[in-house]
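User: Can you predict the 3D structure for this chain?
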Amino acid sequence: MTSTITATASLLPTVTGQLTTQPPIMQIIPILRATFSLLRTLLSQASRVVVALATPLLIFVPLISRLFAPVILAFHIVLDVTVYTPYTISSNVAAALYPVYMFCGVACIFGAALGILGRSLITLSNNVIAPESPKALLHAELSMRPKKRRRKSSFAEES
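Assistant: Here is the predicted structure, written as structure tokens:
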């Protein structure tokens, strides 16, 4: 009785399947699609059920609107008095006074520019006609400062 055992060993992988190189997000996308499709179906069916159940309640809409008509009218009047009328008045006044506003704004800007330009031209012409020495400028600066005066106390000092 002789038996022969034959064994073959291989170091190479014998996997016949193909390795997947897809990122993990690509494996989740089919699951997400199925989930969102199911949610969409459920929501559309739920909206149909709600409409079917609410249709008999539409009989009460004219009754409710007539019951709340005084409140709605009062709210409309208050809103008209406090919001719509002041807004209309202010927008019409602003539209009417816009040219005056623009004229005054442009006049102020040009007046300020003309004043600054005139002041700089006068300073320039004064420096060209009669230049001052630095010593005179320092003396003029010192003479411009107000002198501190000592006040006499109204209280009699006892010492």
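Residues 28 and 54 are 39 Å apart (CA to CA). The two ends are 144 Å apart (CA to CA).
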